[in-house]
Design brief:
Distance between the termini: 113 Å
Strand content: 25-35%
CATH topology of one domain: L,D-transpeptidase catalytic domain-like
CATH class of one domain: Mainly Beta
Strand order of the largest sheet: 15-14-13-25-17
Radius of gyration: 41 Å
Number of helices: 7
CATH architecture of one domain: Beta Barrel
């Protein structure tokens, strides 16, 4: 019975010590309580909120003046994504008071990055003109170069950072500046010259192959093209493979006769692909020929024939991937 009585007394002691932890939260804040440096001693939640807001808002929630060139416009801090959490700060103050701790709550605010970016875009929109990229028109006898155009606009990332700095560290003038500047196009003629470092045009009507380097014509070669019914196909192609002294993989076509489907080695006189091969896909390619008399005519089965000396000259100048326009 003594043990039971001791346990009961211990239980009462635990219950008694637990009472302060479950005591009702204070209705007013203790002496010396501050929120963001504002004295809120003896105030209830509503009055503490009002007093804190009255002192904080004129400093932290003033509109920001945004100057772009000579124009200045005023923008509410809320439109720039800033929110001061008065309710949260007051709530934290009462939680500290309930724990009998000193109540000194720091300023609590957030900046909504998405909202800020949207507002900066809106501010810059009247001043924005998109730059125009340079471009080329790949012709048969020449490449037409179309110069790009500068655009204009503000540096949005710089303006956004200036606004963030002003919201975090308010200044007496509460103003940030941006200026309209030139915006360079992403693609210039220099860029295009690198992109089209090599280009070939095939003029079937005049039996000419033209080689362009960095958008300029550098050499013209005489060629033969496909005969009637086996025309060299028109359109844009690319150099897909290159070979020296290529074997001939005979297509399974009626015109190939008994050779259809065979592979004729380069050492065989029956191989019509002489010296070099630049493959354009679908069995079409540029190659040398032993039938020099055919150059300047429609004589091939769809390929582009060149004099052997010419195809040897052309071969090292043309990398894999080179665009080829057949017209």
């Amino acid at each position: 019975m003594k043990i039971a009585r001791t346990a009961a007394i211990a239980g009462l002691f635990v219950l008694a010590t637990a009472v302060p932890a479950t005591a009702a939260a204070p209705k007013t804040l203790p002496a010396g309580a501050t929120i963001a440096g504002v004295d809120v001693s003896g105030l209830d939640a509503a009055d503490a909120t009002k007093k804190a807001q009255a002192a904080i808002a004129p400093v932290w929630e003033r509109p920001v003046n945004v100057g772009i060139n000579s124009a200045v416009q005023q923008v509410a801090s809320a439109d720039l994504g800033q929110t001061v959490d008065y309710k949260g700060m007051v709530s934290d103050a009462f939680k500290q008071a309930a724990r009998h701790r000193p109540v000194h709550i720091r300023l609590s605010r957030t900046i909504d990055g998405k909202k800020l970016r949207a507002e900066v875009t809106k501010l810059g929109k009247p001043y924005y003109r998109a730059p125009r990229n340079s471009r080329v028109v790949l012709g048969v006898t020449r490449i037409k170069r179309i110069q790009g155009r500068l655009g204009r606009g503000i540096d949005s990332s710089k303006l956004r950072q200036k606004i963030i700095d002003e919201l975090r560290h308010p200044t007496p003038s509460r103003i940030v500046h941006a200026r309209v500047q030139s915006l360079r196009p992403a693609v210039t003629l220099k860029t295009l010259a690198r992109r089209y470092s090599t280009y070939i045009s095939v003029d079937r009507d005049h039996f000419k192959l033209r080689l362009f380097k960095r958008l300029r014509l550098v050499k013209t070669y005489p060629i033969a093209v496909g005969m009637a019914g086996l025309e060299t196909p028109a359109g844009i192609r690319h150099v897909l493979d290159k070979q020296v002294n290529p074997d001939w993989h005979v297509p399974n076509s009626p015109w190939a006769g008994s050779l259809a489907g065979q592979t004729i080695p380069s050492s065989d006189p029956a191989d019509p692909l002489k010296a070099r091969w630049l493959g354009l896909g679908d069995g079409v390619g540029i190659h040398g020929t032993s039938e020099d008399w055919s150059i300047g005519t429609r004589a091939s089965h769809g390929c582009i024939r060149m004099h052997v000396s010419d195809v040897i000259d052309l071969y090292p100048r043309v990398p894999i991937g080179t665009p080829v326009r057949i017209h």
